[in-house]
Amino acid sequence: MCNQAVSLVAAELERQGIATVTIQLLREVALSVGPPRALFVPYAHGYPLGAADDAQLQHSVIEAALRLLEEPDSGAPVLVDFEPSAT
C-alpha cells in the first residue's frame, strides 16, 4: 500500500480516537504527510518487516512499532528509526 495513503489514513483514524502506528519505508513521505506515529525501517519496498524467513527480525519490527503506542501523546508526530537489536 502507498506510504502516503497509509499516513493519511492513520492521521484520520487518530482524529477519530483510534491510536495508530505506521511502518514507513520512505522517510520523505512520512516527514511531509506527518502520520501520528511512524517507525522507519531500512528495508526494500514490499518487505516492511525485513527478510521473508526471518521471524525474529519480523517480531522485533512489530514490537518496536507497538512500543510507539506507549509514547505520551504530544500532539506532534512521533518519528522513530528502527534499530535492530544485536541479539
What helical percentage do the residues reach?
Answer: 25-40%
Summing up helix and strand content along with how strands pair, one would put the structural category as alpha/beta
Mean pLDDT, rounded to whole units? 88
Give the helix tally.
Answer: 3
Name the strands of the widest sheet in spatial order: 1-2-3
Ranges where pLDDT stays below 50 over 5 or more residues in a row are: none
Strand content: 5-15%
Domains counted in the coordinates: how many?
1
Overall radius of gyration: 13 Å
Inertia-based shape = globular
The number of distinct β-strands equals 3
| N- to C-terminal distance | 30 Å
Biggest sheet, open or closed, and with what strands and sense?
3 strands, parallel
List the helices and strands in order: HEHEHE
Task: Provide the descriptors you would attach to this structure in a database record.
87 residues, alpha/beta, 3-stranded parallel beta sheet, globular
Q: In words, what does this structure look like?
A:
This protein starts with a helix and ends in a 6-residue tail after the last strand. By secondary structure, it is of the alpha/beta class. The protein has 3 helices and 3 strands, in the order αβαβαβ. It is globular and about 35 Å long. It has a 3-stranded parallel β-sheet with strand order 1-2-3, covered by helices on one side. The protein has helices spanning 3-15, 27-33, 55-67; strands spanning 22-24, 37-40, 78-81. It is 38% helix and 13% strand. It has one domain. Helix 3 (55-67) links the parallel strand 2 and strand 3 (78-81).
